[in-house]
């Protein structure tokens, strides 16, 4: 079984990458996805695009859900017997801990693909916002996508590449837009990977909301703009699948950028996940009623 971990900070493009990678593929693939919240969203995004996905919500696979991760992989192997298992940990999970969990199952031939947002990477590193956790994802990656290069100038892209090469000189790097790689991913693997553990997961607060009925598109977009402005706390990531008066949409907030995109089919249930610090959960709950 080919095994791939797709890591990256919140909003870097992990889900988009997996969708692109598996679109039109012929191999039997299953995605094990971990959302840090009580209501998973990424799993349904995969499902509406015809991708077999298993969700592990309500925690982080590198600590509180480590046992569940091991059990889920065992169940996937026995139930689906996939040719390719892809694991998308939460953006606040450490890659080293996921590798350690897989090694307990005897799965050591693993490709780790790290995705970085070139528009934020240098600034976050210089601000030391993520400290040693930041190192953990980059240094354990075999392949690193420098994503969103259409949104950055050449100077920032070059500086990002240089920094990544300093942190992890063995990684193969690619510049990407919309996390799209042209051609298959190939990298020779060995079973003697040295797992470099730098940090546990990040300790952010999280809030999950289930929404009832249809929602006005403009009012929901305003909610995301308000979250961006810090009205409901220091929110580093928010994402939602919601049925609006303009149809079903996916909303995203990541490091000050708000995006809304229609989804292929109706969400089974409208919901919102918010991740950050000092969250105004009660105020959010009231505005969502």
Brief summary of the model shown:
Helices cover 31% and strands 27% of the residues. The protein has 9 helices and 12 strands.
CATH architecture of the largest domain: 3-Layer(aba) Sandwich
SSE pattern, N- to C-terminal: EHEHEHEHEHHEHEEHEEEEH
Which fold name corresponds to the CATH topology of the largest domain?
Answer: Rossmann fold
Strand content: 25-35%
Helix content: 25-40%
Number of helices: 9
Please, how many domains?
A: 2
Name the structural class. alpha/beta
CATH class call of the largest domain:
Alpha Beta
The N- to C-terminal Cα distance equals 46 Å
CATH H-level superfamily title of the largest domain: P-loop containing nucleotide triphosphate hydrolases
Indicate the mean pLDDT. 82
* Low-confidence regions: none
For the biggest β-sheet, the strand order reads: 3-2-4-1-5-6-7
The major beta sheet can be summarized as:
7 strands, parallel
- Rg measurement, Å: 18 Å
What is the number of strand segments?
Answer: 12
């Amino acid at each position: 079984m080919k095994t791939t971990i797709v890591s990256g900070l919140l909003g870097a493009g992990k889900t988009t990458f997996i969708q692109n990678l598996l679109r039109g593929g012929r191999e039997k693939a299953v995605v094990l996805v971990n959302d840090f919240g009580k209501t998973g969203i990424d799993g349904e995004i995969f499902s509406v695009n015809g991708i077999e996905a298993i969700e592990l919500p309500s925690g982080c696979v590198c600590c509180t859900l480590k046992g569940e991760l091991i059990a889920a992989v065992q169940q996937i192997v026995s139930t689906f017997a996939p040719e390719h298992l892809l694991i998308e940990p939460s953006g606040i999970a450490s890659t080293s801990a996921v590798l350690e969990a897989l090694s307990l199952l005897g799965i050591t031939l693993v490709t780790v693909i790290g995705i970085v947002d070139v528009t934020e990477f240098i600034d976050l590193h210089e601000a030391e916002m993520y400290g040693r956790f930041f190192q953990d994802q980059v240094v354990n990656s075999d392949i690193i996508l420098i994503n969103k290069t259409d949104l950055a100038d050449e100077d920032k892209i070059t500086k990002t590449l240089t920094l990544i090469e300093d942190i992890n000189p063995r990684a193969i790097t690619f510049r990407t837009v919309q996390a799209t790689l042209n051609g298959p991913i190939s990298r020779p693997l060995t079973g003697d990977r040295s797992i470099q553990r730098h940090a546990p997961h990040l300790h952010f607060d999280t809030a999950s909301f289930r929404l009832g009925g249809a929602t006005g598109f403009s009012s929901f977009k305003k909610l995301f703009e308000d979250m961006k402005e810090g009205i409901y706390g220091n929110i580093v990531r928010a994402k939602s699948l919601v049925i609006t008066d303009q149809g079903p949409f996916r909303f995203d907030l990541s490091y000050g950028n708000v995006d809304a995109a229609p989804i292929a089919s109706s969400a089974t249930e409208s919901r919102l996940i918010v991740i950050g610090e000092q969250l105004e959960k009660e105020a959010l709950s009231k505005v969502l009623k």
